[in-house]
Amino acid sequence: MSKAGSKFWGWLLQRSPQNADRPDIQQQAFDTVADVGFPAGAQPIEISSETESLVDSPIKLGSVDAASKGSEGQLIRAHNSLVVILGCGHAVKQSQAADDDERHIRGIAGRCPYCFAEIEELIAKGKVEIMPFDAERLSLVCSDCGKITTSGFLCCPRHYKDVPNPDGTVTYLGPEDAEEQARQNTAKAILSALGSLVSEDNHNTPRENTQEQNNDQKSN
């Protein structure tokens, strides 16, 4: 994580009343019996969880399997998975994308730096109150939506522009890339217009000279 990103997260933690007296803000995917949906009166027998953490992030994904004894002595088994809705609007339950014979499962591509910067600016200006978990969640983009721009940054659909190429491929432009392309297009348009004017002047000049010569010959 960059120095700016580390400073941002430190500032977020200081602003969080819930975690003000807790140095470790890592949120556990499942830390209570209620997370697995046991019915009222059930007595937990066994709970096992499997989680994966994102580096430098409060986000955790995973699942939990549990067994309990019901109020009438019956065995109750439960399974639950943590699903996180990312800033691109898609829900994910694992960090890596995967494909099997029947379906495609989205993963997390990474953080869109432009979303992250927007959230950082809103917090700095005091326009939003947000927990570190949600600040990170809203800046992440799934593996289906995230694209690498020409400048080398991962970008979400809201911040990239797709440009079709003649060979059928697609180039993705981030905000800075799009601005640079717009400047280049403007410069090309100006040069093209100037070139047309120069060409027109050069084309008209010989005709004017020829007309003058013809007039001189007639007068003689």
Describe the structure.
The chain is an alpha+beta fold. It has two domains: 3-173, no CATH class; 175-220. The protein has four helices and 13 strands. It has a three-stranded antiparallel sheet, with no helix packed on it. A two-stranded antiparallel sheet has the order 4-5. A two-stranded antiparallel sheet has the order 6-7. A hairpin with a 4-residue loop joins strand 6 (98-99) and strand 7. Helix 2 packs antiparallel against helix 3. It starts with a helix and ends with a helix. The relative contact order is 0.09.
Identify the notable features of this structure and list them briefly.
two-stranded antiparallel ribbon, 13 strands, alpha+beta, three-stranded antiparallel beta sheet, 2 domains, 220 residues
Structural class: alpha+beta
User: What's the domain count?
Assistant: 2
Termini gap: 87 Å
Number of helices: 4
Which sequence of strands runs across the widest sheet?
Answer: 1-2-3
Silhouette: elongated
How are helices and strands ordered from N to C? HEEEEEEEEHHEEEEEH
Concise synopsis of the structure shown:
35% of the residues lie in helices and 25% in strands.
What is the topology?
Blueprint: H1 3-15, E1 43-53, E2 60-69, E3 75-81, E4 84-85, E5 91-92, E6 98-99, E7 104-105, E8 108-111, H2 113-124, H3 132-139, E9 140-142, E10 147-148, E11 154-155, E12 161-164, E13 170-173, H4 175-219
Antiparallel strand pairs: 1-2, 2-3, 4-5, 6-7, 8-9, 10-11, 12-13
